[in-house]
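Quiz preparation item.
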């Protein structure tokens, strides 16, 4: 399956214009959305008039076809008489989704802002002057690493070096990793010094947030996962007395884009005067491409999606591309790229960003060949859901592989396919990731992998890409309860193995996990078809 890179220059130029205008300060919806959101919440911070805040928010968001709903919740762990116990939870929905029948609307934005602003000017200054220690927790993919890097740039007092009061903690949903991080934070933070946490690109549970409150004076959560919007209500009820919390969950774009939009002015202020940098000269195409890839906007941006794949390939293959790399700073502030000619056609690369994209295209081509060979050598776990009324018709298929890495290792273009990658470590902890291109999975009324994994396994993610991490013993208990509480018709389900002579790759425990996860997904899919 060769990676081809044919493109239409006019189409790509229009896509660049669209995605960068969407991110830009002048007319950039996300930047203005966050400013408007914070300003209006700050204005009504001490005002109990929920209707007034709702009207103020809707005066802005209605022009975008969105509706804001404000609700007040009392913390269950604080005295109800305390003013701090009352918090305004803001959910902003698409009006067209609210009007659909037989569809439970998911908010596009969920926000809770104790101080009105995500961080006050005084808090910014205290972090920059090292009076507050800041821990940045982030996911370990391109979106998470870039989110952490963009967030750090907003607090930098030095254009080149990291400061000792800001530390990064990579997290891939393994509880032991979080516990180790928290132990280190307690060990190395001077006694009596305030500690803040900013969490980016992580779909946490209310339990995770509750644990963070034990160690930090303030928690800021900036995310974009569908499942995180559902956690917002629970979090608003568990904030301890004396603790502060800020949350913006925006499902419309990636976390890197959201962090860039939120902190854009602060980043520009840090690098002001550096080679003519200001908020309008930042290379907006960088966070735009990260968002296009991470949220799989291949339909909206069919040309740029391939460029975004090349950027991700460069991040994945090249050494030193994590949050600590100065690469992100250089690609963001060195030069703004606005045309396909500059990006792909001009003979001499105009800036490091262009070089990265072109190298990424070459790496992507090599990676496609490698994945073909790897897939041919794999034992494939297979499941399908047959149509009850039409012989020979298959409604859904699932293919699974053993090991690490993204589910796009699975080299198949079958319609309505879900791809699974499953790994079980030496401690018996299952790590599962799932991916699907099918609109019947990732579409607005589709299966929604993130929702299924959240509700059944305590995982989460997006409608078309999700995962979970759970001990095998807990997994077995969950599956047993799932079967006991439902009448499952196995007559239309088939589970088998496609070994292609690679039986030495077969693992019976992985096969059990695959069959069980597939059963949950096919059962849920079948129920959707019956509705």
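Solution:
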């Amino acid at each position: 399956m060769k990676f081809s890179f044919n493109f239409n220059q006019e189409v790509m130029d229009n896509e660049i214009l669209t995605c960068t205008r969407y991110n830009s300060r002048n007319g950039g919806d996300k930047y203005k959305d966050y400013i408007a959101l914070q300003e209006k919440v700050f204005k009504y911070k001490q005002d109990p008039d929920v209707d007034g805040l709702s009207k103020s928010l809707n005066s802005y968001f209605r022009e975008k076809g969105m509706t804001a709903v404000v609700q007040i919740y009392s913390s269950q762990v604080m005295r109800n008489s305390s003013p701090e116990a009352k918090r305004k939870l803001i959910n902003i929905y698409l009006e067209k989704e609210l009007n659909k029948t037989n569809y439970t609307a998911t908010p596009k934005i969920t926000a809770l802002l104790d101080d009105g602003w995500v961080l006050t000017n005084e808090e910014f200054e205290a972090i920059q002057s090292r009076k507050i220690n800041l821990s940045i927790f982030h996911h370990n993919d391109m979106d998470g690493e870039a989110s952490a890097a963009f967030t750090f740039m907003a607090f930098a007092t030095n254009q080149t070096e990291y400061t000792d009061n800001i530390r990064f903690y990579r997290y891939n949903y393994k509880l032991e990793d979080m516990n180790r991080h928290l132990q280190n934070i307690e060990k190395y933070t001077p006694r009596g010094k305030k500690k803040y946490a900013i969490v980016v690109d992580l779909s946490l549970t209310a339990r995770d947030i509750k644990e963070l409150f034990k160690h930090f004076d303030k928690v800021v959560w900036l995310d974009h996962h569908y499942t995180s919007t559902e956690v917002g209500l629970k979090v608003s009820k568990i904030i301890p007395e004396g603790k502060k919390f800020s949350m913006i969950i925006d499902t419309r774009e990636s976390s890197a884009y959201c962090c860039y939009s939120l902190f854009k002015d602060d980043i520009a202020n840090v690098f002001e005067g550096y080679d003519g940098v200001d908020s309008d000269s930042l290379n907006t195409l960088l966070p735009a491409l990260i968002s296009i890839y991470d949220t799989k906007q291949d339909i909206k941006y069919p040309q740029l999606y391939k460029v975004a794949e090349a950027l991700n390939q460069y991040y994945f293959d090249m050494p030193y591309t994590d949050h600590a790399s100065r690469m992100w700073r250089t690609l963001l502030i060195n030069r703004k790229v606005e045309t396909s000619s500059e990006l792909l056609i001009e003979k001499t690369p105009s800036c490091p960003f262009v070089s990265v994209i072109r190298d990424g295209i070459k790496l992507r081509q090599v990676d496609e060949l490698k994945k073909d060979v790897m897939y041919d050598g794999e034992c494939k776990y297979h499941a399908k859901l047959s149509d009850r009324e039409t012989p020979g018709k298959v409604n859904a298929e699932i293919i699974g592989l053993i090991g690490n890495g993204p589910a796009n290792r699975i080299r198949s273009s079958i319609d309505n396919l879900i791809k699974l990658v499953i790994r079980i470590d030496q401690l018996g902890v299952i790590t599962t990731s799932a991916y699907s291109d099918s609109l019947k999975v990732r579409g607005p009324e589709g299966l929604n992998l993130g929702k299924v994994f959240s509700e059944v396994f305590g995982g989460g993610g997006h409608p078309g890409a999700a995962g979970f991490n759970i001990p095998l013993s807990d997994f077995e208990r969950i599956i047993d309860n799932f079967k006991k509480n439902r009448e499952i018709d196995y007559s239309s389900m088939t589970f088998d193995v496609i070994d292609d002579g690679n039986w030495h790759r077969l693992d019976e425990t992985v096969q059990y996990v695959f069959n069980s996860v597939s059963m949950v997904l096919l059962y849920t899919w079948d129920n959707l078809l019956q509705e």
